[in-house]
Write a structure and sequence with these properties.
Layout (H helix, E strand, L loop, with lengths): L6 E3 L5 E3 L1 E4 L5 H13 L4 E3 L7 H15 L7 E6 L7 H15 L6 E4 L7 H14 L5 E4 L3 H9 L7 E5 L7 H9 L3 E5 L11 H10 L3 H11 L3 E5 L3 H7 L9 H8 L37
Parallel strand pairs: 3-4, 3-10, 4-5, 5-6, 6-7, 7-8, 8-9, 9-10
Antiparallel strand pairs: 1-2
Helix pairs in contact: 1-2, 2-3, 3-4, 7-8
Length: 299
């Protein structure tokens, strides 16, 4: 099935929608409005994180969106993430998740990810996620931004294979080695920054194909990722663009043109661990909210 309700079966058997709305760098009010619009227009996956500082707004959007669309909680697939300074043992992570569920107004999340592999804590944190998974507080667990070395170590020391590795993935940053490794272990790649932070939208090849197929550059990229079987979360705060981003199901990119986009990969190092103090086990963990301060907004 091609459409917003199309899913991919994860390695634990649950179905995850293939295209969803992300709310990175969105304040509580805008995340609420974006989520409402997305649900109204057929999206069934919502992706947020503690780092984004908008779980309250996302939760409000989920409640209002479901009510307006006449849907139930289990019609929606919700992802959130455990951030750096909140990683640790089961007791710590369990309390963190309880707080996140409270902010979201949910009894469970469908997917819970370790946001970044803090070297001193990610194994212990993943063991906590495994226990939360077995307790039914989360339907699936996974990671984000894990390179092959860290993923290999995680697989050696864990029981539950991550269902997802959420990575930057777009025409210029395709993480081929990570994609191949994850696929070989039954781990589904999920794309964040699928449009390359806007960079890919100005690529001459993308724009040539947009003209050829009578589509926007964003639609060409999202359709390419769809045909590559990459789960994708795309962010917009504009209802018109939220709709446009999902209008990719009535055309198909030829195999030849898919290959042309594949060849846009710059083979650059997509992960930048060395830029972060938390990469050093003795350094400080980054745990700032990656947006502007709107914690006093009334929702």
């Amino acid at each position: 099935m091609d459409g917003l309700h199309s899913t991919i079966k994860l390695n634990n058997g649950i179905e995850m929608p293939r295209l969803g709305l992300g709310v990175w760098k969105t304040n509580n009010r805008d995340s609420r409005d974006s989520v409402i619009a997305a649900i109204k227009h057929g999206y069934r996956a919502i992706d947020t994180a503690r780092q984004y500082g908008n779980e309250r707004g996302t939760g409000a959007g989920i409640r209002e969106g479901l009510q307006q669309a006449g849907l139930k909680r289990d019609d929606l697939f919700v992802t959130t993430k455990l951030y750096n300074g909140e990683q640790g043992d089961y007791d710590k992570v369990s309390k963190v998740l309880d707080n996140q569920l409270s902010d979201l107004g949910l009894d469970y999340v469908d997917l819970y990810l370790i946001h970044w592999p803090v070297d001193a804590t990610y194994i212990e944190s993943y063991h906590a996620l495994e226990r939360l998974y077995k307790e039914g507080k989360v339907r699936a667990i996974g990671v984000s931004n894990f390179d092959n070395d860290r993923m290999s170590k995680l697989l050696e020391e864990s029981e539950v294979i991550p269902a997802i590795n959420q990575m930057e993935f777009n025409p210029s940053q395709q993480e081929k080695d990570i994609l191949t490794f994850d696929e070989s272990h039954g781990i589904q790649l999920e794309a964040w920054s699928p449009l390359g932070g806007g960079k890919s939208l100005s690529n001459p090849v993308i724009n040539e194909l947009a003209k050829k197929y009578g589509r926007s550059a964003a639609q060409i990229i999202l359709r390419w990722e769809w045909q590559r079987d990459i789960i994708t979360v795309v962010k917009s705060t504009h209802e018109k663009r939220i709709v446009e981003n999902s209008d990719i199901f009535d055309f198909k990119i030829s195999d030849e043109d898919i290959q042309r986009i594949n060849e846009l990969d710059e083979n650059s190092r997509g992960l930048w661990y060395d830029d972060f103090k938390w990469h050093n086990p003795n350094g400080q963990y980054g745990n700032s909210i990656d947006q502007w301060d709107d914690t006093n907004e009334q929702l």
